[in-house]
Amino acid sequence: QAGTDLLPDDLLLTNGRPVDPGQAFPVGTASISLEIIRSVEFTLTLNGQVIDLSSSATTLGSALWSAGFPLLVSDALAPQPNSPLSPGLSATLHPSRQVTVRTSLGDATIRTAATTVGEALQDAGFSLQGLDYSLPPPSDPIPTSGLVQLVRVSEEVLVEQTPLAFETQFQPVADLEIDNQSIVQAGEYGLTATRVLVRYEDGQEVSRQVENEWIAREPVARIIGYGTLVNMQTEWVDGIQLQFWRKLDMYATSYHPAGVGSTTASGLPLQKGVAAVDTRYIPFFTQMYVPGYGEAIAADRGGGVVGRWIDLGYSDNDYVPWHQWVTVYFLWPPPANIVWIIP
C-alpha cells in the first residue's frame, strides 16, 4: 500500500529486527515502523566459475553464508570476509582442502587453500633446506590424493684410509754366506686416503661417491739381503769327504728311459749319474752329490721339475724309485754364473 516493492533478497526490519514480509500486523496495532535494507549484487568466482549473487548482508562473509557458501578458517577469500558488501563487488574463493605431509618423523595433516606443493608445505610449517626435496616437487600442483612427501637430505664427507702394501726387494750382501738371508730394511705399509661424499635421506645412507683418492703416506720397501760369500766346505757323506760350495734341501724323484726315452736335453744318455733340474737356477753340467745316490750331473730338464726339485736318472736295469727330501751338495768348484736365490 505504501507503493514500495521488495526484491527477493531485500531485508525488512521492524524495530531493528528482521520480519517476514508476509507476516500480519498484530491486532490492535494502529501503526508500525518498518525499515528496508536493499540487497546489492556482487559476483563470486569459485573453481573458475563466476556466480552472480545478491544479498542485503553488510559484509562479504555474511553474504556468502546466507547464499549457502559457508567459510572455513583455512579457506582463502579475497577480499577478506569482513569487507563491506558493496554493489558490483567481485570476490574470489579458494576453498581449502585436506593435505597430508609425510615426513620421517610422522604425518602432519592440515587444511589449506594452497594450490602448489610448496605453498602447502609452508602452510604446514615446513621449509625445504639445502638439499631437501619433496614429492611432488614444490612447484607442482597438490596431487589429488592430497599426499606430499618431504625428504630431508644431508651430506657428509668422509676420509677413509686403507693400507698400501710395500714391495719386497732383494739386495746382495758380500759378507753373508750363500743361501743365507738377512733383513736389511723392514718394510712399512703406506696409506691410501679416499675422500668419499656420503648422502643421507631421512637419516638413511643412500649413496657413496668417491671424490678423490691420493697416497697419504708412501710405503717403505722391505729389503732382504742375500748372501754372496762362497767358501769351500768339507763334509763326510756316505763315507766320502766332499768338497762343496753349496748344499740345498731338495725334493728328489727318479726316472728311467722306459718312461721318457733315452736321450736327455743336454744330449747325454739317460743313465745313473744324470739328473734333471730347473735350469733357470742350476746350469747344465753342474756337478752335485746326492746322499744314497752318488754323484750327479745336471744334464736334463722337465716341465714338472721346478725350483728345488731334482729328478734322479737311472737306466732301466738299475732303476730305484725316489720320493723324498734330500740334502744335495754342489761340488767344488762353483760355476762362473751363480744363481744366488733358489726358491
Could you name the key traits of this structure?
single chain; mainly beta; Ubiquitin-like (UB roll); rod-shaped
Largest sheet descriptor: 6 strands, mixed, barrel
- Would you count the extended β strands for me? 24
Helix content: under 10%
Give the structural class. Answer: mainly beta
* CATH 4th-level superfamily of the largest domain: RlpA-like domain
| Secondary-structure element string | EEEEEHEEEEHEEEEEEEEEEHEEEEE
What fraction of the residues are assigned to beta strands by DSSP?
over 45%
What is the 3D shape? Answer: rod-shaped
Secondary structure topology:
Elements: E1 11-14, E2 17-18, E3 35-37, E4 40-46, E5 49-55, H1 60-66, E6 76-78, E7 90-94, E8 97-103, E9 106-112, H2 117-123, E10 133-135, E11 147-151, E12 153-164, E13 168-177, E14 181-185, E15 190-201, E16 204-217, E17 222-229, E18 233-237, E19 240-255, H3 257-260, E20 274-276, E21 287-290, E22 294-300, E23 309-313, E24 323-331
Parallel strand pairs: 4-7, 8-11, 13-17, 19-23, 20-22
Antiparallel strand pairs: 1-2, 1-3, 4-5, 6-7, 8-9, 10-11, 12-15, 14-17, 15-16, 18-19, 19-24, 20-23, 21-22, 21-24
